[in-house]
Design a protein that fits this description.
about 600 residues, 24 helices
């Protein structure tokens, strides 16, 4: 693809700025590991929220969302529940507050807060480190595949997709390793501004170039409706046969069951709290628990509206102007390439450079967060805890540089063996997270759950996730979740009940510090006996009501830019009305009561 001199200048300027930012913050980040990995917990919550949103605005995920909305139409707005996106609502309402109260650096270090320093706690600590590293490597591989495909279309040199990804990941590693978490956040803010401008511009272009009648002419009946019954009832046959082949291959024709399974899976994964990755890192980086909750709440607004405006804009442009070419390709269509093809053909010079710089920025934001968070587990949770607890801050930071390089190298290696974005997406959101959810849910809500239960639950979940595809070949991956979850849950409960509970002082300290609701009454009675002024958390019903309202609020935030771009002005007032109603409820029943938490 040909880029103008203006496009190339904009892209080049962005890369230069990111390197300069990394070098500028090197001294500040190198003070100690708290500064290197958490920025000294001094950054404003709204800046951390924008940074977190930028990290979620990745190229690979956006390519996947474009392909989903193209094929499934407006029913594609339900697909973010696969991750699930609404885990941000659980964190906004109560989990970010609980997590931030722990006052630790990593999710693995949090284990000591919950389970103490017993053998079971140490085993749990180690398996969280392993899980964190595996999940980070999975996300790095996922980003590697997406950016390689994207760069090969847009950049002018005759280089393979994998080699483009290699160059870009090494470049990103330079500013992350030198500037640590502070440089990650600073560049994230710039990246988010670029992506928001690009997203709004693409949405406006699509609205001006495409009419609702043009969309109806190239899509099957029901494409423009988000409503569904037990079956998908979307038939591309004769319009774009490869799209129908994609639906058949995905196995989501029983759409009602699919959405219910996403909700079931998403509830337990969300109730377990964030996985030990960049999301958790930003929660722990906040000054206060209240700030952590506000950060998670703002995420849904700042990431969803601009991102889905870009997604919807690219989809309708591709549908109207690119369908004939896609149809001519027969069964050789790679729907993950719709995003770069649409940008290459429908975005004018100048703006194209800004959009490409923004998407490269989104890629770099995603992997920079993972490159920064993974070494925290290696240095803080392995080296400092077990090998050399008395090393100098300077030595810990130097080893963090080395660990960052190691993690980046392993992520690149994984990227070379992954074939598609969808394949790694399915593995992350089903197998990997299913093995995580049961023990991490129990750790919050059940006092009798102990370190042995956590270790064996995690291990059983991960092993079942590896075995289940061979036992049930051909099954859609999301339907593996109940089997993995139940195996993990049984192992967690049995291992806890056949071993001793954690020491009273550990449980009482955790309960007083974090103050969760759930099955904690025996611990509450002991805390109350020693501290008559202690007030029990009785907000379960209120929190669950707010979670339900928040999920509806978030779903309509996704729908808003999509319906705007397809110009369904009949539905827009209803969508806006629901968003306002949910916002008022959350203002009165969540925001106004944050101080009480």
């Amino acid at each position: 693809m040909t880029l103008t001199a203006t496009d190339i200048l904009i892209i080049g300027a962005y890369f230069v700025i990111t390197i300069l930012i990394g070098l500028y913050f090197t001294k500040m980040a190198s003070r100690n590991i708290d500064s290197y990995f958490l920025g000294g917990k001094r950054m404003p919550w709204y800046i951390l929220s924008v940074s977190n949103a930028s990290g979620m605005f990745d190229v690979s995920g956006t390519m996947w969302l474009v392909s989903i909305l193209f094929v499934y139409g407006l029913k594609g707005i339900w697909f973010p529940w696969l991750w699930p996106f609404f885990n941000q609502i659980f964190m906004m309402i109560f989990l970010s507050v609980w997590l931030r109260r722990s006052n630790v650096i990593t999710g693995a270090e949090w284990i000591s807060t919950r389970f103490g320093n017993t053998t079971g706690a140490r085993l749990s600590h180690l398996i969280v480190v392993v899980f964190a590293l595996v999940s980070v490597l999975g996300f790095l591989g996922y980003a590697f595949v997406g950016i390689g495909k994207f760069a090969q279309i847009f950049l002018p040199w005759d280089i393979s997709a994998n080699n483009y990804a290699l160059i870009l990941m090494i470049f990103t590693g330079l500013y992350v390793v030198s500037g640590g978490f502070i440089s990650v956040v600073a560049t994230d803010v710039i990246q988010y501004i670029l992506m928001t401008i690009a997203s709004i511009a693409i949405g406006i272009i699509a609205i001006q170039a495409v009419s609702p009648e043009m969309i109806s002419a190239v899509t099957p009946e029901g494409w423009d409706s988000a409503f569904f019954g037990s079956k998908l009832d979307l038939n591309w046959t004769g319009i774009l046969d490869s799209a129908q082949d994609r639906i058949n291959q995905d196995g989501y024709t029983l759409f009602g069951a699919f959405v219910m399974m996403m909700l079931f899976k998403g509830f337990f994964i969300s109730a377990a709290g964030p996985i030990p990755s960049h999301d958790m890192q930003r929660i722990l980086s906040n000054k206060t628990p209240k700030n952590a909750a506000l950060m998670s709440g703002l995420n849904s607004v700042v990431v969803l509206i601009p991102r889905f405006m870009m997604v919807a804009g690219l989809v309708v442009l591709a549908l109207v102007f690119f369908s004939d070419e896609l149809s001519a390709r027969g069964d050789q269509v790679d729907f993950e390439l719709i995003l770069p093809y649409a940008l290459a053909n429908f975005i004018p010079p100048g703006l194209k450079g800004l959009v490409i710089a923004g998407l490269f920025a989104a890629f770099m934001s995603t992997i920079s967060s993972f490159i920064n968070v993974a070494p925290a587990y290696l240095i803080n949770d392995i080296y400092k805890k077990y090998i050399n607890p008395n090393a100098s801050d300077k030595k810990y930071v130097r080893l963090s540089y080395l660990a960052s390089v190691l993690v980046l190298s392993m992520g690149i290696g994984l990227g070379y063996i992954i074939e598609t974005v969808d394949s790694i997406t399915q593995w992350i959101v089903t197998a990997l997270w299913a093995g995580y959810s049961a023990p991490n849910m129990l750790k919050w809500y059940w006092w009798r759950f102990n370190g042995y239960g956590f270790f064996w639950g995690m291990l059983a979940g991960l092993l079942t996730a590896l075995i289940i595809p061979f036992i049930l070949p051909g099954m859609v991956p999301i339907y593996h979740f109940p089997f993995i979850f139940i195996a993990s849950l049984l192992a967690s409960v049995i291992a806890s009940l056949v071993s001793k509970p954690e020491d009273d002082h550990v449980l009482m300290k955790f309960y007083k510090q974090v103050r969760p609701w759930g099955f904690w009454n025996p611990v509450y009675e002991k805390v109350k006996a020693g501290d008559a002024g202690f007030i029990k958390n009785t907000h379960f019903k209120r929190d669950m009501f707010n979670v339900a309202v928040g999920i509806i609020w978030q779903l309509f935030l996704i729908a808003l830019p999509v319906y705007l771009v397809i110009q369904d002005y009949f539905s827009l007032p209803v969508i806006i009305g629901v968003i306002i109603l949910c916002s008022v409820i959350l203002k009165k029943n969540w925001y106004d009561k944050l101080e009480e938490n």
